[in-house]
Amino acid sequence: MEHLRCGRPARHRQLPDARAGRIRRAAHPHGKAVQPRPSAHRVRAVPDGNPAPHRAPCVRQQRVPPRRLDRLLLSAVVVAARRLAPHRPSAARLLRGLAPDDNAEGSTALGIQNYADAGIAGRGVLLDVPRFFADRGLDYDTERTIRIDARMLDELAAFHDVEFHGGELLLLRTAWAERYLAKSPEERAVTPWRLSPGLAQEEGVLRWLWEREIALVAADNLAVEADPVLESDFRYPGETPPERGVDHSGMLHRPLIALLGMALGELWKLDELAADCADDGVWEFFLTVKPLNLPGAAGSPPNALAIK
Questions:
Q1: Is 4 within 8 Å of 31 (Cβ atoms)?
Q2: 3-state SS assignment for residue 169
């Protein structure tokens, strides 16, 4: 995941080349620092919930040792920038990354180590979707595909009284994970798990994130974006669903990672941080993210801390 910038730039090394994607914006957006509003100093671990049996169907599909499955659910995933570059050859040129032919099976050049090597730190901003809906008297359901478009993102920012200066690490609370974890194993087994509020698959959302120079987007749901994909500006002509696994047709992941070079965080534990922000009315903080140094890996637990 990604972001930085608070007081003096909180980095100890020069970030890697374009393979670091939008995280470079967090490192030195316009060469100036943005100071979060004063607040009592508190430290909160953002991800890593109680490692009790919280296995989600999507997690079971991963080839991970069984002992680590429980830990992964709320550990969050840091998705390496441009891991999807082979889908669009232009992405390599746009981000000055590897040519598609060089990004062959077994290549480690575009792995999560590009984030882990320098770490990620900066000004974090939390937008609490359920609280916004409750304040407006709108119906909200964590198990409904609610599409958060660019206009709603503006409304959320205004509701939380936050501004963006470039390089922020954006967190979205949907409360999906909270509801899932509150269910019994029997309830989870019969509940459709791919139903979640999230970012709309629209060009306007990409433009909103790009123009504000957001470096990282993380959420407490399965994919950051609305799930499943109902409408999308990003479907490829003639695409057919895969024989097995998740259907990625029309998802935001492709343009966000491959074209914008943005880091994504999934299944973050944001309820305690949201309660803290609601208590003091300050929805920004210093956020650090330290992925594991796994060459060639597409993701990692983020080991994130929010400091207020």
A1: no
A2: strand
**Per-residue pLDDT for 2 more than 90?**
no
DSSP string, 177-195: HHHHHTS-HHHHHHS-SS-
For 64, the token pair is: 């991970």
Per residue, what are the HEC states of 243-278? CCCCCCCCCCHHHHHHHCCCEEEECCCCHHHHHHHH
Residue with tokens 């990692």: 300
More confident residue, 139 or 107: 139
The per-residue pLDDT for range 167-176, each reduced to its tens digit, is 999 999 999 9
- How far is the C-alpha of 122 from the C-alpha of 289, rounded, in Å? 9
Architecture of domain 18-234+249-307: 3-Layer(bba) Sandwich (3.50)
**Among candidate residues 234, 121, 226, the one with its CA nearest the CA of residue 172:** 226
Q: If residue 216 lies in a helix (H) or strand (E), which one and from where to where?
A: strand 216-219
Angle at 120 between CA 115 and CA 121, to 5 degrees: 175
Q: How far apart are CA 73 and CA 181, in angstroms?
A: 10
CA–CA dist 307, 123 (Å, integer): 10
Name the pairing type of β-strands 169-173 and 120-128.
Answer: parallel
198: helix, coil or strand?
strand
At residue 132, what are phi and psi to the nearest 5 degrees? -65, -45
Give pTM, 2 decimals: 0.76
Annotated domain spans of the chain: 18-234+249-307
Of 245 and 279, more confident: 279
Per-residue tokens: 180: 């899932």
C-alpha triplet 21, 285, 18: angle, nearest 5°:
10
CB-CB contact of 76 with 267 (8 Å): yes
